Amino acid sequence: MTRHAHAFVLAWHHLVYHRGRTIILIVAIALAAALPLLVRSLVAAGSDTMMARARSTPLAIGSRGSELDLVVASLYFARPAPRSYGAGELTRLADSTSGTVVPLHLGFSAQRQPIVGTSLDYFELRALRLKDGRQFAVLGECVLGFRAAQRLTLPIISDALDPYDLAGTIPLKLNVTGTLAPSGTADDDAIFVDLKTAWTIAGIGHGHQDAGAIRDPNDLIGTVGDHVVASERLRHYEEITPELAATFHFHGDPATFPIHAMLVWPRDARDAALLQGRFQRSDEPLQIVRPTDAIERLLREILRLKRFLDAIFIAVGAVTMAVVALVIALSVRLRRDELTTMVRLGAARGTVFHLIAAELVLIAVVAGAVVAISVAASASLGGVVEQLIVSR
Amino acid sequence: MLTTTELNFRYAPPGGFELRVPPLALAAGDTMAIVGPSGCGKSTLLSILAGERRPTSGTVRFGDQAISELPDADRRAFRITKVGLVFQEFRLVEYLDVLDNILLPCRLHPALALDASMRSRAIALAERLGIAPHLHRLPERLSHGERQRAAVARALVTNPRLLLADEPTGNLDPLGKQRLLSEVLAMARDTGAIVILATHDHALLPSFGRTLDFTRFEPAVTDGRA
Fold first, then answer.
1. ipTM of the complex as predicted
2. B108 vs A14, A18, A342: nearest CB
3. Phi and psi (nearest 5°) for A8?
4. Is the pTM of this model over 0.90?
């Protein structure tokens, strides 16, 4: 065993014996070193994930208001949903572009996972593959994102709407027809339904159950002439069964049914430029946003905040290092008897220095390993950071 | 053979203390006790003989080596390889178990190798001193006497030619003192080591071949039993 090895053995025994102090030192050093690196890594991972999503969505159209709110709601399904507008805009827009327009109905959820009403084009343009099952085809069917499928428990029933909802809409039970393969995007957390299913959840479309067939007297309030009045106890949620599907219908003009955003994949740059020009008119009730512009502005703000945090981290790091140096100096003073004994026994010159240095190296190596593992783990947390940034 | 000319050691002012020691000559296997009141210079003399301090005047020789003339690095090498030290407060390292405490000198200087034979010797010493069941215990879990024995084992593990002990029996009961001293002297006799022990316990003096008495601040060496 070399002299250095002996120093490390003694240092290891000392650190283990004073394990409480050792852990505090390692945590302090690891925190001081890891915080700025973690923030940098997390911001980079989050930025990459967010920008990748923004780049894959050329244009978003929604009600006038905050561009950022429109983008985070339509790309990352963050709540609250932007102000809705009539689905008739979809037809109007289709006349103005040769690209593909995808409507989005937002704002509903089931077990806290967002329900996104859209068309089948969405899956094609986002290159989302089915892991198993099939696409939704009829009212009441849904396809689950990869993480949503892991988190949700059956039955999947849309969350109750606003508790003060006077329309008396009943939550809708959704039938799962398929699960999407993981995409590493906000799509993994969503429950996708057809627009009409979303409108049914909104209470615009409904079916009629034959109350005359009700046998349980507790489910009935009574009869008024030819009408049977069902009790609220009858159903806590609506379910579109094959028998009931035939009776489903929508009241009103479909052009007025709500959507919250339209995503547009223009055919080419000219098409995109023409579209953007159209929505710049002052009498236009809708706005068009390039998601990359909105996200870049958001990330610039985050970077500004990060620079401020970096300055704080440098100060905290300097103070931590000063405290660590003080702890080491005090430790050497407290060990004076032990170190003097070693010298009296005949320790070679430099032994005490080697002993203290070995201890510092061991602490630094363990702290470094903690930092490296943390930073490496943070690199895969882009999706989590994205959710943290866009969630309210 | 340990020989000294008349040694003189003076602490820097304002200590004002001056130690004068008559010439000494001890052969392999000799034993000597140093007696005297606290502060008379017993520990200082041990540290000069160990090569920790240089005398202000006079020379310490071990064999043909003038220890007091050697540079610091050589005196450290002499100490770790040739001298076994037992301190008054044992000075065991709190974070090492008994076995690692006994083997500590081997981790402090490249002149000593921590090999299988050294480990075997450490274990044999522990068995002889009755602390083998505690080899993997920390010092804080040992009794006073067990700690003392561990300190003696550490001093003997390198098979020293000179064993210097500074009041090693100070806190033991009379029976324990005599038993430990007998064991130390027997082990030193087996290896032919010179034993010099500082004490103020006159009851121990009959066990030593010679006594260096500082009682009257006029040190004198007497041969035979005091």
1. 0.90
2. A342
3. -70, -40
4. no
